[in-house]
Design a protein that fits this description.
TIM Barrel, 11-stranded mixed β-sheet, globular, 27 strands, 665 residues, 9-stranded parallel β-sheet
């Protein structure tokens, strides 16, 4: 047993004589797992009533004969041309109201009965044919679900979804606040999908009725989930036990992955950061993916070994970065390290996307050498990390509804972006070396000492009470500006801001000031002054202690950060858009109280993480994200599993640039 290592392999793009060379190189790189058939729908169903498995048979048989594990896809990530020609209703209508013709991928209407029937049938037939093959370790449904459709079929599906949610038009009209602008609906068929032709102007985030658009986002997430469930059910007819998944896309705005989590047998995701200095962002995303299923390990289903090909500028991963980022994924809960792609496509949009094997098929490239070296390390590691969990005492709440509602809102500021606020607060915890579970607002919070809830714009269910319970038993709860503003229908609470969080935070907010990026209001925190931007709430304490104050404008001297005693713990309220130094200062006050630091919080960009194996073995990961070596004093005893070196507390450690240690303590 070991961490699966390999990735997306598309031998159907190549003559069979190339396959032999590929597997020879796979041997050299210790590649043991291949994802097959991701885009093979046309090959397996070349015409409406014709199924041809001859190519896929050879592909799967070759992988099995070569001793590889197979993650077998249903091939439905892109529909065939004949399907769009025979049934034009399967293609999407976009936000601007344009009916799309055949082309690209992610162009299937999720509400189309024809698409749902045929995609389910091809999944059923693939499962019937290959179920029981001992090489198959997982099923891969679809590919990177995303996008939205606004066609008549989706309009009808949306109305059915609304009937189930609200039951009556009176309930719907109340939730959507339709007395505004004479929008009261008197018949379900009057409801239109919110698009550029109906409720929107200046793009998808500018809508006259946030409640309508919010519900359409929820509906579209559920509609694509229904597509996934169709195929999963078809697979289960032939294979009741092999795990089924689909590849998620991390902090992807379009789908609420918390709605999907219970239906995935394990989480897998594709890691394509926007640049080559995204280590803190990736840490947050790994933590989010791990948190989808209550800490269960996930698969890193895709990453590039070198470059992507989907952006205007595609920076190359510097030497050591691919290895470092792969180990970072393992440190945060990955039980598989896979790539896209195993061999570079010869044509079309991904021919310049990074690959383990380039167009020349050489094994003496830097990229292949680094992949092979990582494969050897994972082989030496064996099963040490498999099934290991993260023992976090800090939770960070991540909520798609709050993300959507905040960024759809007309005011206070469209410059405040949910993801950036969350990143800043997670970054402060990451810098301190703290283990963090990134969880849904519905998660059990009883095991956490600290709960951080940045920009918790929407407050749903009994969350306010559960946060009070955290503080009452001695924990700390941290929240920020724009929190506690609206209920689950995106209607404002008829009470002082921050709504139901007011008692816990011990403040009320009378006014708020939004400015452009260039405007700075300094905030005094302890013996230092930091900057704040974009959003400044004017706070009136209702029992809370003032921790930080604004230094400029007519509200100079008023609270910007407060701490409220609640039971045996505290509620912290950050009313201003603090810079990273300010956010870190606040969270380190909280961490000080609970003594929740990693071993090296003073070393910039030296990441530490802990996983605990099922047998109780504690594994400490040290990851040097610096482009220079670092020297430090060991604050632990153990053995580095990558080198076999014994480490004793007090000895000097020298970590190379972008170096990694995995210490069994």
């Amino acid at each position: 047993m070991k961490v699966p290592f390999g990735g997306d392999y598309n031998p159907e793009q190549w003559p069979e004589d190339v396959w032999k060379d590929d597997y020879r190189l796979f041997d050299a790189a210790r590649i043991d797992t291949v994802t097959l058939g991701v885009f093979t729908w046309t090959l397996t169903q070349p015409a409406p009533d014709v199924y041809d498995f001859s190519t896929l048979d050879r592909v799967v048989a070759k992988a099995e004969a070569e001793g590889r594990n197979v993650c077998l896809a249903t091939g439905t990530g892109a529909h065939p041309a004949w399907l769009a020609r025979a049934h034009p209703e399967v293609t999407r209508v976009d936000f601007e109201g344009r009916k799309h013709r055949y082309g690209a991928r992610h162009n299937s209407c999720p509400s189309s009965p024809v698409f749902r029937r045929l995609s389910t049938e091809v999944a059923r037939r693939i499962a019937q044919r290959y179920a029981g093959n001992p090489a198959i370790v997982a099923w891969h449904v679809g590919n990177e679900y995303g996008g939205a459709c606004y066609c008549d079929l989706c309009a009808a599906g949306f109305r059915d979804w609304l009937r189930q949610r609200y039951e009556t038009l009176d309930g719907l009209n109340a939730a959507w606040y339709t007395t505004f602008w004479s929008h009261t609906f008197t018949d379900w068929d009057e409801i239109e999908p919110p698009s550029a032709l109906t409720e929107h102007w200046r793009g998808p985030d500018h809508t006259a009725f946030q409640g309508i658009t919010l519900d359409y986002l929820r509906f579209m997430s559920d509609a694509m989930l229904a597509n996934y469930l169709d195929e999963k059910a078809a697979i289960r007819e032939s294979d009741p036990t092999t795990p089924v998944t689909t590849n998620l896309m991390g902090m992807f705005r379009g789908i609420d992955y918390h709605r999907w989590a219970s239906h995935l047998d394990f989480v897998s995701w594709d890691n394509y950061p926007p640049d080559d200095t995204s280590q803190a962002r990736m840490a947050l995303t790994h933590d989010l993916m791990r948190g989808l299923k209550d800490g269960q390990p996930f698969w890193l289903m895709e990453q590039t070994p070198s470059v992507t090909a989907c952006r205007d500028v595609n920076p190359l991963k510097r030497p050591g970065v691919m290895r470092l980022w792969s180990w970072q994924a393992v440190a945060h809960g990955a039980d598989a390290v896979l790539f896209f792609q195993m061999r570079a496509s010869r044509g079309a949009s991904e021919k310049y996307h990074g690959a383990v094997i380039g167009h020349s098929g050489r094994s003496d490239t830097r990229v292949f050498g680094e992949v092979a070296a990582l494969g050897a390390e994972l082989e030496r590691l064996g099963a040490a990390t498999l099934g290991a969990r993260t023992p976090a005492r800090v939770a960070l709440l991540f909520d798609w509804d709050s993300w959507w509602a905040l960024e759809l809102s007309d005011g206070p500021s469209r410059l405040v972006r949910y993801q950036q606020v969350v990143l800043a607060y997670h970054r402060a915890l990451w810098d301190a070396g703290v283990g963090v579970d990134v969880v849904a607002v519905t998660a059990d919070l009883s095991r956490y000492d600290v709960v951080v809830a940045p920009a918790l714009h929407m407050l749903k269910g009994d969350l306010a009470r559960r946060l009070e319970e955290v503080a009452a038993r001695g924990g700390s709860v941290v929240t920020t500006f724009l929190s506690g503003r609206v209920d689950e229908d995106d209607n404002a609470f008829l009470m002082d801001v921050p709504g139901p969080l007011g008692a816990l935070m011990g403040v009320r907010v009378d006014e708020w000031d939004a400015r452009d990026q260039e405007f700075v209001n300094p905030v005094r925190l302890g013996d230092q002054t930091v900057e704040s931007r974009l959003l400044f709430e004017l706070v009136i304490p209702q029992g809370a202690e003032v921790v930080g104050t604004y230094q400029a404008d007519f509200y100079a001297g008023t609270p910007a950060v407060t701490r409220n005693a609640f039971g045996a713990g505290h509620g912290w309220y950050v009313a201003a858009g603090l810079d990273q130094a300010g956010v870190s200062w606040v969270l380190r006050q909280v961490l000080d109280r609970h003594e929740l630091y990693g071993p090296y919080p003073e070393v910039p960009d030296l990441e530490t993480a802990v996983r605990v194996a099922p047998d109780g073995t504690r594994l400490l990961f040290l990851l040097n994200h610096n482009a220079e070596p670092v020297s430090l004093t060991a604050r632990f005893d153990g053995v580095d599993l990558l080198t076999g070196t014994t480490v004793q507390s007090g000895q000097m450690l020298h970590m190379e640039a972008r170096g990694v240690m995995v210490v069994r303590q």
